[in-house]
Amino acid sequence: MFKNEYGSKLLAEAVENLASLPGIGRRSALRLALHLLYEPVPNVEKFASSIVDFRSKIHFCPRCHMISDDGSCAFCDDPHRDSRTVCVVENHADLLSIENTGQYRGLYHVLGGIISPIDGVGPGDLTIKDLAERVAAGGVDEVILALSTSMEGETTSFYISRQLAAYDVRLTAIARGVGFGDELEYTDSMTLGRSIVNRQPFKS
Description:
Layout: H1 9-19, H2 26-37, H3 41-57, E1 59-60, E2 67-68, H4 74-77, E3 82-89, H5 92-99, E4 106-110, H6 128-136, E5 142-145, H7 151-163, E6 170-173, H8 189-197, E7 200-201
Parallel strand pairs: 3-4, 3-5, 5-6
Antiparallel strand pairs: 1-2, 6-7
């Protein structure tokens, strides 16, 4: 007979999988699992299906690498955005954080991470080459480096500045309203918005 703290192997497995999500502890995972238990089965099936569809059918924009349903993303397709300004971010969560400030109307470029030798992440693992090719193709006046102010973020910004040095493009960085070592995803919208508006020329 299977015995554990939950009295059910199925419940234990559900809790374990829910707890694997970032920011979800075991107690929160248990509450979520029990909530789903009392939901009508069609609702749970719809919920599970949407997660599977999201993971298996999602695309990435060939231009900026933002997630999209099919082909290019909604930001790159928006004719009202300033296509001559490109904001470089570490990941999709940072992009959405900046977008939610309502202070930026240009385009984006998602790196897919930052340079971190200790984690085995080098420049070739990111989309820096794609960014350089995008700038080289013309039509970009300014590149905003909106990366975290950690040592890894600063290293990545410096590397990008060297890759873009040969091009006639204005290189700026978000203002230091974002404290050293802070992650953009967890910075409040007002501070982040001011950091975008008050961006400064990048100094390597």
